[in-house]
Amino acid sequence: MNRTAETVEVNDPELLRLIDREAPIEQVCTGFRFSEGPIWNPREQCLYFSDMPGDIRRRWSPREGVVEVRNPSNKCNGMTYDGAGNLYVCEHVTSSLVMETPAGERRMLATHWQGKELNSPNDVVVRSDGTVYFSDPTYGRMPVFGLERKQELDFQGVYRVSRDGTLHCEANDFSQPNGLCLSPDEKVLYVNDTTRAHIRAFDVAPDGMLSRGRMFAEHVGTGDYAEGVVDGMKCDEHGNIYVTGPRGIWVMSARGAHLGVIRMPEIAGNLNWGGRDWRELYCACSTSIYRVRMNVRGNPVAYMRMV
Length: 307
Known about the structure:
mainly beta; globular; 4-stranded antiparallel sheet; 6-stranded antiparallel sheet; Neuraminidase; about 50% strand
């Protein structure tokens, strides 16, 4: 491995097609307790993000800087949009997945499974047809990051909300499911497991059902939170996977090969694409939001076409 003192650790030269070796890591804002859930709004040209311990949702833009938008925020975590501009929010305190419309209406999409309260929805992705997938670990039932309380379910799962609003449990054998993302053709869903330090892949059927769960990448660190763990995860336009881990953002090819690491100044928690051309990679790292310019665009999900 060629380890540099600059931005990247290179395991495979393919990484340097995605990012320049000395691409600067820019701190765009700081002063938070633990930043999470970054999502770029192309209409407003700004980044929304969570501060779970602070129980605040904020946005950042080059013009306005940091603005508080919801306080309290129910210690929200992962967020995403659909093509119509509806915002999907994982809330730790309410153990709910909610949707906020552009008009300000709040709709509860998932709160219980078979009569028992969900653990704490953590991260969420929306397919182009409106099918929703989300992870449900127990982090929102722990002090600081959520509301400490007893778990009702006896497992940590991955769920699908179909277009008619029906909730389906797609997998119940995770330790702590966390980040998830779709491949560019939406035929594969990737889900990582924080405590097991690996990423799994599932085939996605036309109706949204998941099948053929399999290992995609293992040993993304050791699962030690102090060194950085698998958490937020996104895909680029070519199908490469970007996931948080020790030292920053680990980059995997679509075949699961570890290309290298984009180094971050703090522990990386989540990431997302943004900017007018979707070539800026924003990373929520503990107390700060950082940005790095890439040579590749983000996976062209439906909300990127919002105008």
